[in-house]
Amino acid sequence: MKRLSLLTIAIFAVLVLSMPTKASPAGVLNIGVCPLGGMTLTGTTIDFTLPDGGGTGCTVTSGGTNVTYTGGGPLGSNIQGQIKDLVGNSPVVDFMTFTGNPNLHFDLTSLGPGLANTTCTGLGLGQACSPFAGSPIILTNIGTGTAVTLNAAGVARDQSAETSQWSGAFTTQTAFSVALLQSVINKQGAAFSAPYSGSFTFTSGPASVPEPTTMLLLGSGLTGIVIKVRKRRKAV
């Protein structure tokens, strides 16, 4: 009888441990820019434009967004929100929040990684580089210009005691060459501005960083965007 009880406990323990881990929130988050919005990048900062004040910019969910969570929702498309500006690779609490969804929070935990290759001249089609060592930005030669990719990952939380990992990338494309963008990003006080799109998914385990070639496809609808290069009066 004692042996049977131990066997029952062992079977129960195996069943419990093999059950999938619950995660909340869940789904897919796709974002774009508010009208006239975008992002401005320097070597160390990302300023999401159309500021709402206090270092934030405007963003909006796009088609395919469906995020379920505890305490509201679901979060669908065409919902405006706020996105916080970035300095370096520092974590950001409430990096993304959305109007009418006060119980849903997206914290940023990491950007990148970028690439070890910082030689951005003479790249062949599909080859990529980062503008400088340690930069999370990836520049890829797409033949007609450059794809700019910024991988991001973090934690999504709601009213429940559970959290989810989210990961994905911000992307944009420009007709400018990879070498020219590297020069702009590395020039002190210089910046370039562009629209952007972003796509993020949720997992119950550690956040995974998508490969640059996969995330490049997310920005395919932005071909032909002309990036405005300008000098900053002061470094951001």
Overview in brief:
This protein is 13% helix and 41% strand. With 236 residues, the chain is mainly beta.
Q: Which features would summarize this protein structure in a list?
A:
disordered C terminus, 41% strand, 8-stranded antiparallel barrel, elongated, 3 helices, 236 residues, mainly beta, 5-stranded antiparallel β-sheet
Explain the overall architecture:
This protein has 236 residues and is mainly beta. It has one domain. The protein has three helices and 17 strands. It has helices at 2-18, 178-186, 212-216, and strands spanning 26-33, 39-41, 45-48, 56-61, 66-69, 72-75, 80-84, 86-87, 92-98, 105-111, 128-129, 137-141, 146-157, 163-174, 190-194, 197-203, 228-231. Strands 1-4-7-9-10-13-14-16 form an eight-stranded antiparallel β-barrel. A five-stranded antiparallel beta sheet has the order 8-3-2-15-17, with helices on one face. The chain is elongated and about 50 Å long. Mean pLDDT is 81; it is low at 6-23, 205-227 and 231-236.
| Uncertain stretches | 6-23, 205-227, 231-236
* Structural class determined from secondary elements: mainly beta
Reading side by side through the largest sheet, how are the strands ordered? Answer: 1-4-7-9-10-13-14-16
Order of helices and strands: HEEEEEEEEEEEEEEHEEHE
Helix-residue proportion: 10-25%
Number of strands: 17
Number of helices: 3
> Total domains, how many?
1
Q: In terms of quaternary structure, what is this?
A: single chain
Strand residue content: 35-45%
Rounded to an integer in angstroms, the radius of gyration calculated over CA atoms is 21 Å
